[in-house]
Amino acid sequence: MQTKLTAVELIKRFQRLFTDLNHKQIAERLVKLVMAKPAVSRAALIIERDRRLFVESIARLNAQKQPEIDTVATALNKLRGFPHNQIERVFAEGQPIALDSSAIVRLGHDITPKGTRSAYLYPIFEHDKPIAAFYLESQDDLPALERSVQELDTVWAFSGLLARQIIEMWRHDEQSERHRLAEQALWASETYLHAILHHSPALISVKDLNGNVVLASEHYKQLQNVDEQGFVGKNVFDVYPKEVAQALWDIDLATQDKQQTFETELELMHKDGSLHTYLMVKFPLRNPNNDVFGVCTICTDISERKLAENALREQQSRLNYMAFHDSLTALPNRSLFYDRIYHGLARAQRSNSKLALMLLDIDRFKNINDSLGHDSGDLLLKAIAMRLNEGVRDMDTVARLGGDEFVVVLEGVHDMEDVVFIANKLLVTLARPLEIAGHEITTTVSIGVSVYPDDGTDTDELLKNADIAMYKAKEAGKNNCQFYAKGMSATAVNYLLLENDLRRAVEQEQLILHYQPQIDLKTGELMGVEALVRWQHPERGLVSPAHFIPLAEETGLIAPIGEWVLRQACYQQKRWLDSGKKVGRMAVNLSPRQFRQRNFPEKVESILRETGLPAEYLELEITESCAMEHAGETINQLKQLNQMGLYLAIDDFGTGYSSLAYLKRFPIQKLKIDSSFIHDIQSDPNDAAIAKSIIGLAHNMQLSVVAEGVEKPAQSDWLCDEGCDQGQGFLFSKPLTARQFEARFVGKHFAFDGNVVKLNALA
Ligand SMILES: Nc1nc2c(ncn2[C@@H]2O[C@H](COP(=O)(O)O[C@H]3[C@@H](O)[C@H](n4cnc5c(=O)[nH]c(N)nc54)O[C@@H]3COP(=O)(O)O)[C@@H](O)[C@H]2O)c(=O)[nH]1
């Protein structure tokens, strides 16, 4: 049986119940007291803290009908399963709210637990203002719940105080947390600052408005004049040289006054004597009232970046230099020459003056290069570049266009005598002996001059005309200077210009072979084919061998060209043999220099091996004059070639002076009557007599005989009647490309030009 307690006993009991509890435990105990009433199935304590409603604690009956308490201390709006609007209403109106079963149904089934039939909201006041509320649910009807509410009047009475206690405790907790966080933040920022000031490689400092350093990074100690105490407490004037300090202080003042950030670079000396470049940033520091109270300086060491930038700049200017200068002589190259002359021409036009362009080419440079080697050739070019530079004024341009070709541009020319004088001076200067790699070398140059505006108004025209004049100088015996004159023919010049291009012709695959058939005059059968080289020049078109073979011979280029022809002809012959085409022998022309190469027979042998062509399918032709020039040597070379199984022919026979004594000793198989005797063979009795003699001579020596340059059927008939074995000429076919040649084959047989078919028909 329950005994009624007095008010004092009740207070004491409550005090005992709530002594030494924290706010969570107080809230738990309060809802537990409410749950003690059997009609209450769920209870919650809601408290207003800082104008927000928090559900502090919730109690509900579990399956065993035991109260279970959950301290949530969560904002109401974050929790589901509560009649939010009703709870807010209690706090707003300060009146209890009773919800019967129909009101519960209206709340909806997701608000209250299943089976709830009534609910009650009870406000708790402090000074007439609700500061808390209890929310009660019951599985009984409202009257039963209301009875329990009445029985809980003591709880309601004490709840005002306890709710206040909970609020204060929360506030205290929150404040403690805020303090803790603030302390933690302070500690963190102090730690960071300490770490930054001690370990940052930057110079970081803060100065007050008088320029006294109040905070500084350790890195300052690296600076000259900063002792082990560091920068703190000092002033820029204590540390830096006077002018530097003044400049820094001026920036500090400007930063304070203008209240803006300043950025500049400065160089500071370290204790180890090294000079470092720093990027310095200064900015004002403001207090919460936005007043400037100091200046912060951050200096970053950018020495390495500067070094890299400088290196890059140097590299760029080196590259720039290289792009416009010749690496060997350091003279301006072709590009810079074009740029200089472009501006020079503009100046000449403005000042109405003349400009002279001198093109210089070293005479016989190739011989020097070939005999002394490329290193000596390079030394020579350098020496010439120096002498050229010394021989002209500073304002004049000396450039190397490539190879052994130099150019001098003389500006402000008013008198042509001056140009003549300089040209002669250069000829004399350059002709002085030079010591190159222990050899005394005397070299000369040929100079061609063109003058603006008389010989051209643009660079290319002036260059072209200076070129023509320069080659005229070469023609005139080298070591002299020629001025361009309007009528100068470019034909001879062209011939010389070819030389440079010819050097590249083999490697750039500009050479091709054409093939001209040789036929049996009696049967019309294809007996052989002569390989004739052509040069497919990129600008000049097809260049005749009559034009470039003598040049190749003169310059020594005949060796690689001749070897290329021989190899290609052998490869072609092998292909035709393999494809079953009856071509006869492949005749290849040899130039004197090529034939005289000591190891020529070995070269032929190696090419035959490489191409797989049997020797008997190859015929070599040397001219009569070549054969007779060093007849003794010729016999030896021919013997070796003959022993290899090759067929040998004397070309252009009748044009040289043959010694019959030698001729009979040459191990040859064929004579070729030169075309000059064939041309007028019917009308010129001398030509006819010579041709007859050659045919007779050949047959007497057991040699076969071929007539070159057969153009007319009558010539062919005459030759046939006189017993000439073979003919070669346009009558039968012009020289053809390999493809054209193959196209003439009908099965395994070669078909000649139309008019020759008739001739064949006679056979
Ligand atoms: N060392 C080398 N010399 C070579 C090589 N290839 C050619 N040559 C020599 O160059 C000279 C000119 O040759 P090309 O212009 O090829 O002239 C040849 C024929 O096209 C020409 N020909 C042939 N038939 C006729 C004709 O009926 N009429 C006519 N006007 N010309 C004709 O004759 C040249 C052949 O001459 P040849 O060698 O004497 O049989 C010339 O001296 C070539 O030898 C080479 O690879 N190496």
TrEMBL record:
InterPro entries recorded for this chain? Biofilm_reg_signaling, EAL_dom, EAL_sf, GAF-like_dom_sf, GGDEF_dom, Nucleotide_cyclase, PAS, PAS-assoc_C
User: Which Pfam family name is an example for this entry?
Assistant: EAL
Q: Signal peptide: which range, if any?
A: none
Catalyzed reactions: 3',3'-c-di-GMP + H2O = 5'-phosphoguanylyl(3'->5')guanosine + H(+)
The residues covered by the GGDEF domain are 353-486
Origin, by domain of life? Bacteria
Q: Which UniProt keywords apply?
A: c-di-GMP
Q: Which GO terms describe its molecular function?
A: cyclic-guanylate-specific phosphodiesterase activity
Name by which UniProt lists this protein: cyclic-guanylate-specific phosphodiesterase
Q: What class of enzyme is it?
A: hydrolase
Q: One biological process GO term for this chain?
A: cellular response to nitric oxide
Question: Which organism encodes this protein?
Answer: Marinimicrobium koreense
For the keyword Protease, the answer is no
Which residues does the UniProt record annotate as the domain EAL? 495-749
EC number in record? 3.1.4.52
Q: Which Gene3D superfamilies match?
A: 3.30.450.40, 3.30.70.270, EAL domain (3.20.20.450), PAS domain (3.30.450.20)
